[in-house]
Amino acid sequence: xxxxxxxxxxxxxxxxxKNREVQIWINQIRGKRPEVINYLGDVNxxxxxxxxxxxxxxxxxxxxxxxxxxxxxKELDELRLGFDLLLDIDSKYLEYSKxxxxxxxxxxxxxxxxxxxxxxxxxxxxxxAVPFEAFPETLMEKKINLLYPDVIKIIAFYLxxxxxxxxxxxxxxxxxxxxxxxxxxxxxxxxxxxxxxxCKGKGTLRYNYIHKCxxxxxxxxxxSNELISCPDCKHQIKTSREESYECSKCDNKEEDNxxxxxxxxxxxxxxxxxxxxxxxxxxxxxxSINEKSGLVSIPIKDVKxxxxxxxxxENVKINIKFLDYNNVVKGSANQLLLQAYDWNIKRESVKxxxxxxxxxxxxxxxxxxxxxxxxxxxxxxxxxxxxxxVFILINFLIHMGWSxxxxxxxxxxxxKKNYEPLKEGYIKAQVLWYKKQNSKILPANCDNLxxxxxxxxxxxxxxxxxxxxxVNYAIRKSSFKGKR
Length: 484
Prior knowledge:
By secondary structure, the chain is an alpha+beta fold. 32% of the residues lie in helices and 16% in strands. β7 (117-120) and β8 (125-130) form a beta hairpin.
């Protein structure tokens, strides 16, 4: 009561609740939904009602009070104004959450996102947010506010894969596998992962249940263990379980095509919650108390300097706003969104084509065989699209048989031709990230509107009509030349 009675606390809870559905908790008992805060005095009323914490929606609504259970997607879309990107990081060992938060913030800034907000969750983790205003209004001719929650899930999965090798490296630098398991209360074998030998993707453990009738001998297999009695004779079913692995990238399910579990899975030690990314998902409001720990979910500037002592109610100062909508750099998350969607398209296409890949030529393909779009791109970007250009060139040149060292040197020279050169550190960071990836992916397909046409480099010739990707063009032209 003393803490929530502070006017500065009430003002922040009121500010962050605008256009959001809210829910109060009273000693971990959840209040009714939907609820709203329209006036500063409403916060004081909730405090008098015994509020111990306030939770707010990720989505922003025209009228939250119109929300109700069982609404269709169309109904929700019509009511939704927008949403913020929220990444929920949690681990039983706070230091692992800190490392993950640091890497995610770096990854967002790597994509040139300007408005990144960070707060302590109040217990074992952190929340990272990017305001809705930082994203473009449309994506592939669809309004962005209609793409929730898919757009957030894609970005979250993309960032998880991006930081995976760096997180594993940082955790193992801090502790041994045995120490990591002990710190999070798991067995060593529970934090190891099997890697797909086909595409180097992560193997996901699946349980297959074998149901056998003790009377008639009928046997069924499936993913569910809920079968209790035999469908034929109604006698008791005996259920056994067998383990199998499925690749998260290429859907490989062949037992012999996985490693033997000798690599740390960093996300077994710390989780970036993607399961709860759903419509009407809520999170603890900034400056709200966590009932379990008694600590406050305070916004912070730097995870490295964060101390639990700062989150005690008596020590809390209102000096940072979480999701401050003033002066948001509009569109700064465009690059993040485009690269995440492009990554997802490639990931899905790999699954559909049964992991079909292009073999890397043993001999370098020369620039004279490049398609018109790449030929124009290598002359320099004259307007917007430099970072997309880096992404295109790295993935294209790898498939031309160029070494990553040569590509880095080539990009440094190419960068000087741009209307405004990128920082060299950005290019080096992109190359470093690429080196740490387990698989090689194609550049965006020709019909991806966010790339070649958007940058202004799509100038097709006769051969372009027969191919779907710039790599196809160069390989086909190289093949023609070799047959002469």
